Fold this sequence. Notes:
This protein has 310 residues and is mainly α. It has helices at residues 2-30, 35-47, 49-60, 64-88, 94-97, 103-120, 128-146, 161-189, 195-206, 209-220, 224-247, 260-281, 287-309. It has a single domain, classed as A middle domain of Talin 1 (Up-down Bundle). The protein starts with a helix and ends with a helix.
Amino acid sequence: MDGIVFLILAFFTIFTSIKLSYYGDVLAKESKVGAAFVGGLLIASITSLPEFVTSISAVVINNPTLSFGDIVGSNMFNIFVLAVYNIYFFKSNFFRNASKKYIIECIILLTDYLFIVLGCHNILVNIISIILFFAYIIYMYFVFKSDNEEDSNIAGKTKYIVLKFILTAVIMVFLSVCLTYHADEIAHMYPKFSSSSIGAILLGITTSLPEVVTTFALLKLNNYNMAISNMLGSNIFNFLVLAISDLFIKDNYIYNYADKYSMFYVFGGILIMILFTLSILFKSNKKFLYTFISILMISTYLLVWYLQFV
């Protein structure tokens, strides 16, 4: 019964997240802000709101391991999805068409991963969250620096868009909290699986589906750069969420709750990010090369999944 309720909540959470993304996009265009801001900051943070709510909710109900697993699982799943899309959209091969400016975002993510590993090994653990905060600020600086203003006038369509945006956000927050509580109950029902595994698999994938759907829609429109910006921006925002969740833990740090299963996702995330960075950094006319890298990325994710059940 808990599984059915979880699926129902997951469906409505995904639906409200997608609607929220649409309203956010409309608001952005009404404000005449640029594509980099829309994809990298606004839509990325909006589609990551489920991770934000579920992660903090998990800490509040005294299950930080679930929170940590949710974030690292979601981040690795997002890059895995990009690899799948690169194969699905084989003819366009959007990795090759992606701008090299996203190397900066890749470096920020790899740096975040590095410090998280240090924190999980109790090295510099007291300043890791501060570093993640500053990393997001640096990311915001580069987004605004590279942003080009776009003039878009769609007034008339959005008379009540602000109200719809707020109401949808409230509903999604409520659903995300319920989703976290049910994931926690499932974790207690199946003690064979760690809370980090439940967080990475159930919450991590479920809360990432808004990004998956939004990115697919952008790729169908051949908007490769905004699609990548959405995913990378969501991942950087997720690490900010991890830092915020750390603030809700008394007399300890969230990185100390990382078990071996969540560390699989951390190191797997590092490997899959390196492969993704290489695919953007080194341009080639050979589609096979990009496809092969994507296969390696997919294999890395599936291997981490396998290790959860060994």
